Amino acid sequence: MNVSLVVFQGPSASGKTTLQAVLGLPRIVTWTSRAPREGEIDGVDYHFAERETLERMMREGRMLETSEYRGHLYGTSLASIEETARGGGLRSIVLDPSGARVARELLGERALLLGVSASRAECEARLLARGSDAAQIAARLAGYDEEIAALEGCDLIVRSGEGGLERAGEIVRALRPLLGAGD
Ligand SMILES: Nc1nc2c(ncn2[C@@H]2O[C@H](COP(=O)(O)OP(=O)(O)O)[C@@H](O)[C@H]2O)c(=O)[nH]1
Ligand SMILES: Nc1ncnc2c1ncn2[C@@H]1O[C@H](COP(=O)(O)OP(=O)(O)O)[C@@H](O)[C@H]1O
């Protein structure tokens, strides 16, 4: 397989970010207009910015793609992609289904679309543990069915169910030698 980008996709709190860390590739840091959660670091988890900043970047042609998700703007900048170019080419990113489609269009089979799935109840419990309030949980889970249906477009779906994090991690780690050098 000659893969240059692994795209993690799945419902909120399914475990995308956790499994991305397990895979351990250089991560493309994307932009968001949402506020940082406790423990999230600007420039590491996301580039956090005002919506106006992101809209200006779009107008100036500095965004590869953008997406509206639950009232906030998210996007991948051309600079974010260049930042990780030093990593030998092979890298990973977390995107919603629309972003994943762009990756597929641009890279074809060099994008490996990796879906992460968990039950609604599991996602809900994790959102609760993450400190989300009832309104935030409802907003995040409103798209659950659609996000599960969108996993259909992935190359591979890994289930990250309760107590199954180690197993899901093993499966993701096992992919590493199959990915090729990328370019
Ligand atoms: N299209 C696109 N989606 C993104 C980007 N960055 C993050 N996302 C997606 O935005 C959604 C919301 O992310 P986030 O606020 O971190 O919430 P979480 O999924 O609940 O952890 C997720 O589906 C991410 O995959 C981006 O640059 N482009
Ligand atoms: N299989 C799992 N079992 C239990 N907890 C998990 C599992 N996968 C992820 N988590 C926890 O759930 C929360 C959400 O995971 P995260 O990777 O941030 O999800 P996402 O990036 O999809 O929103 C985190 O606190 C993480 O530690």
Automatic annotation (TrEMBL):
Keywords annotated in UniProt: Kinase, Transferase
Superkingdom in the source lineage: Bacteria
Catalyzed reaction equations: GMP + ATP = GDP + ADP
SUPFAM superfamilies the UniProt entry points to: P-loop containing nucleoside triphosphate hydrolases (SSF52540)
Pfam families per the UniProt record, alphabetical: Guanylate_kin
GO molecular function: kinase activity
First and last residue of the signal peptide: none
Domain Guanylate kinase-like: 3-180
Keyword Cell membrane appears in the UniProt entry: no
Role, per record: Essential for recycling GMP and indirectly, cGMP.
UniProt protein name: Guanylate kinase
Native organism: Saccharibacillus alkalitolerans
